[in-house]
């Protein structure tokens, strides 16, 4: 329950006792704790807590606004490659803008559209990372497993204006709140062999950091594979890269391009994310070109106690685990991340999709979220992409929201 005060009501007032059942209030909304004005508002989903009368008019009113219980997809009108982390009671969200790193901060991911947001980094011009800023992720990490202090890190892909130059880059912020403090460029994250690389993510397993990304085996476009390597610290890779997955199944190889200035076809595995359930690890990735309606999620699986740097320890599922739903008008589902509900009991998938077929890999992609469950064998069951504007219960908070 969110409690405010309101003063100087600006419409003809009912008897104060009727406000609990009738009417819409218009006026200046004040924060209950600071009494600072927040905004001019019209509120209809409320109940009266206290009121003040003067000459038959309501001049002061305290009321409680009923917290939102449902939401609908999409979360934003546009936003590809969505990512979020829940920390200290807030969701910190980001997505591809193409030109900068923007972070949203909200207690309720369903209210992302009204969340506080800030551009925390804009690359300078004429650098190796000035253009095509893709798929940022924000993480809260220790420098070493035994370190006491954690810092914020943003990983993103960018290039000089030429796609073949795409590489991974790292930002760092020591502030407790990533919307405050200073974001500093730690530099290029040098992947082994220094090949084309995008969609980087980090995973902590048994106090060891690993970096996963999508990259080229050589120097020519045509195929994107999923790679992994160990990390010395949050901005440095150590050891060799290991290829975990290549697009080889039919549903992974939709990738015809209609650009005379590019290659004719690209087979794609990208956007790796690791999901743990008890003693199993699941690597969820996006397959086929994001410019196709067939963009979908695939899955590799292994044991929690396995050597995740050993490609033979991973087993690929033969079918996609999440794909387009023409019957629900959801297309090109992919590039996901995962988050827990505030009470820690629900598992949610965050992904982007298009609303119509043929909309491609651009501004029409929008972020969506839905709860998922687990199959009897422990693997995730993501279900079917939910139709737009269908009410979904908000992530559970563990408290009374009335």
Describe this structure in words.
- It is a single chain.
- The chain is mainly beta.
- The chain is built from no helices and 27 strands.
Write a brief structural summary.
It is built from no helices and 27 strands. The protein has 402 residues and is mostly beta strands. The strands form 6 sheets. Strands 15, 16, 17, 18, 19, 20, 21 and 22 form an 8-stranded mixed sheet that branches. It has a 5-stranded antiparallel sheet with strand order 3-2-1-5-4, with no helix packed on it. A 4-stranded antiparallel sheet has the order 7-8-9-10, with no helix packed on it.
Topology, pairings included?
Blueprint: E1 2-7, E2 25-31, E3 37-43, E4 46-54, E5 57-65, E6 70-71, E7 80-87, E8 90-96, E9 101-106, E10 116-121, E11 131-142, E12 150-159, E13 167-173, E14 184-188, E15 197-205, E16 208-215, E17 223-233, E18 236-245, E19 267-277, E20 280-287, E21 296-303, E22 315-316, E23 331-340, E24 347-354, E25 366-374, E26 380-381, E27 392-393
Parallel strand pairs: 17-19
Antiparallel strand pairs: 1-2, 1-5, 2-3, 4-5, 6-27, 7-8, 8-9, 9-10, 11-12, 12-13, 13-14, 15-16, 16-17, 17-18, 19-20, 20-21, 21-22, 23-24, 24-25, 25-26
List keywords for this structure.
402 residues, mainly beta, eight-stranded mixed β-sheet, five-stranded antiparallel β-sheet, 27 strands, 0% helix, 50% strand, globular, disordered N terminus
């Amino acid at each position: 329950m969110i409690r405010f005060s309101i003063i100087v009501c600006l419409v003809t007032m009912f008897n104060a006792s009727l406000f609990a059942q009738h009417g819409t209030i218009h006026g200046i909304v004040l924060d209950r704790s600071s009494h600072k004005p927040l905004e001019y508002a019209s509120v209809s989903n409320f109940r009266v807590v206290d009121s003040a009368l003067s000459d038959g008019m309501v001049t002061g009113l305290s009321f409680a606004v009923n917290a939102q219980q449902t939401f609908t997809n999409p979360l934003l009108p546009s936003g590809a490659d969505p990512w979020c982390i829940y920390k200290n009671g807030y969701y910190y969200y980001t997505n591809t803008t193409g030109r900068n790193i923007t972070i949203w901060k909200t207690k309720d991911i369903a209210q992302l559209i009204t969340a506080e947001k800030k551009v925390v980094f804009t690359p300078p011009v004429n650098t190796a990372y000035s253009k095509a800023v893709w798929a940022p992720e924000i993480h809260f990490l220790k420098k070493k497993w035994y370190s006491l202090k954690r810092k914020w890190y943003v990983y993103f892909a960018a290039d000089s204006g030429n796609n073949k130059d795409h590489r991974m880059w790292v930002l760092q912020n020591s502030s407790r709140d990533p919307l405050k403090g200073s974001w500093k460029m730690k530099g290029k994250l040098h992947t082994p062999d220094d090949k084309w690389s995008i969609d980087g993510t980090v995973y902590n397993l048994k106090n060891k950091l690993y970096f996963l990304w999508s990259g080229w085996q050589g120097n020519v476009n045509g195929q994107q594979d999923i790679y992994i390597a160990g990390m010395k610290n949050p901005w440095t890779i150590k050891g060799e890269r290991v290829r975990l997955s290549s697009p080889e199944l039919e549903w992974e190889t939709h990738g015809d391009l209609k650009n005379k200035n590019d290659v004719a076809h690209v087979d794609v595995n990208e956007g790796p994310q690791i999901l743990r359930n008890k003693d199993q690890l699941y690597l969820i990735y996006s397959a086929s070109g994001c410019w196709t309606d067939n963009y979908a999620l695939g899955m590799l699986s292994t044991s929690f106690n396995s050597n995740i740097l050993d490609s033979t320890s991973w087993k690929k599922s033969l079918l996609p685990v999440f794909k387009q739903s023409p019957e629900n008008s959801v297309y090109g589902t992919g590039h996901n991340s995962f988050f827990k509900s505030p009470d820690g009991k629900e598992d949610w998938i965050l992904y982007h999709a298009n609303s119509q077929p043929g909309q491609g890999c651009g501004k029409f992609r929008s972020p969506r979220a839905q709860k998922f469950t687990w199959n009897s064998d422990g693997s995730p069951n993501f279900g079917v992409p939910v139709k737009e504007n269908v009410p979904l219960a908000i992530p559970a908070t563990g408290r009374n929201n009335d």
